[in-house]
Amino acid sequence: MGNFARLKQAMGLQRAVANAEDIESISKARHDRDGAAAAHNDDNDELLTATQASYDSWLNEYPSAMRCFKGMMSNAKGKRIVVFLDYDGTLSPIVNDPDRAFMSDPMRSAVREVAKRFPTAIISGRSRDKVYEFVKLDEVYYAGSHGMDIRGPPQQPKSYDDKYQTRSVDKKGNEFVIFQPAQDFLPAIKEMLKVLEKKTRGIQGVVIEDNRFCISVHYRHVSESDYGLLHENVQSVLGKYPHFHLTKGKKVMEIRPSIKWNKGHALEYLLDTLGFTDSDNVLPVYIGDDRTDEDAFKVLKSKGLGYPIIVSSVPRDTMAAYSLRDPTEVLSFLKSLARWRENSSC
Ligand SMILES: O=P(O)(O)OC[C@H]1O[C@H](O[C@H]2O[C@H](CO)[C@@H](O)[C@H](O)[C@H]2O)[C@H](O)[C@@H](O)[C@@H]1O
User: Fold this and answer.
1) Residue 101 C-alpha from the chain's centroid
2) N or C: which end of the chain has fewer CB within 10 A?
3) Hey, what CATH class is 184-257 in?
4) Separation of 179 CA from ligand 1 center, angstroms?
5) Domains of the chain, residue spans
6) Ligand 1 lined by 265 (C-beta under 6 Å)
7) CB distance 55 to 319 below 8 Å
8) Cβ of 270: how many Cβ atoms within 10 Å?
9) Of 88, 128, 326, which is best to mutate to test ligand 1, by the most ligand atoms within 8 angstroms of its C-beta?
């Protein structure tokens, strides 16, 4: 069976794509290719055509937020837009080295322009400090560790445990509140980091990232033949820490405390602290590319609220309503949003 037939069989026009990341690289190759080089490989071209056809069909269900921009904004008139952004894969492209996932200057200035006009928060799986290091914007609220470490507005909502909220003041005299619902897990996380490093030392290519309230075990550089061993080793460590569980991202296993808190809860917390509890006047826009962003899409979908936008260049199963192809399109969307506010009278 040729690659084309295999791909068709595997994908059909189904929305769920198991190895979305692999298809994504093929699709990217098409995007980036310089024509001549790729034209030599018929098999590749068939694959690319199938991928494109499948993506186009997916777009009917999850239309491009760029193409639909006008319509989306006409529904936004008179509403208070609040912008939520994921970091990796949304504001910065996915790169091989997690420490080098830099944000471009044009993206930084687009986020700044958006944040000047709308309350804006970045909700990431990274540690809050690390995201700030990349983004370096004081105009933005930050939620690190998949929302388990929030630096938000000074309001301290009653419905959240005071034990995990601390009011503070920055150097410029601005008040803010830190909310860390997984505080009790910190000692265990520190211990687990050491155990994991020891346990995975023998496997080449593993990168362990300390995200403060969660841990990322990256396997992007691990040979496929070692995937099983790595997974076994991680599971054996987890077995000793029953209050933690594993989730999966892009070539990364993420170890998280088993509390009922995710990016969706962080979104709700931020809306509350911004004064939009139960408001029918608010329009949250959430842009993200990874599985953990689905928790936030789900909240918006269940409330029938705002615009959940997935960033993907391949068909994906998602709770989002709109899509953007890649961070370049995210940049265009953010610029359009800032421009729209500038030109609109509402
Ligand atoms: O919620 P996010 O801001 O999207 O963070 C999710 C994870 O992103 C980072 O890993 C991913 O991006 C890296 C850099 O492009 C890439 O090398 C890696 O393979 C991806 O999984 C980050 O390093 C993780 O800690 C985050 O959990």
Assistant:
1) 13
2) N
3) alpha beta
4) 22
5) 3-61, 69-181+261-343, 184-257
6) no
7) no
8) 24
9) 88
Question: Which pLDDT value is given to residue 19?
Answer: 46
Instruction: Quote the pLDDT of residue 345.
Output: 61
Q: What is the pLDDT of residue 33?
A: 40
- Assess whether the C-beta atom of 311 lies below 6 angstroms from ligand 1: no
Q: 3-state DSSP call for residue 220?
A: coil
Report the distance separating Cα 213 and Cα 181, nearest Å.
9
CATH superfamily of 69-181+261-343: HAD superfamily/HAD-like (3.40.50.1000)
- Phi and psi of 295, rounded to 5°? -60, -35
Is 165's C-beta closer than 6 angstroms to any atom of ligand 1?
no
Cβ contact 259:243 at 8 Å: no
Nearest to 140 by CA among 164, 114, 165, 178: 114
Residue with tokens 């986020």: 111
Q: What does the pLDDT read at residue 15?
A: 34
- Give, using CA atoms, the residue closest to atom 7 of ligand 1: 125
Ligand 1: does its nearest atom lie under 6 Å from the Cβ of 127? no
Mean pLDDT, each 10-residue run in order, the chain (346 residues)? 37 38 48 43 69 91 97 94 98 97 98 98 98 97 98 83 89 92 98 97 97 98 97 97 96 97 97 89 97 97 96 96 98 98 78
Would the pTM of this model clear 0.80, i.e. be above it?
A: yes
147 lines ligand 1 (CB under 6 A): no
Question: Which ipTM did the prediction report?
Answer: 0.99
98 CA distance to ligand 1 centroid (A)?
6
Q: What is the pLDDT of residue 98?
A: 97
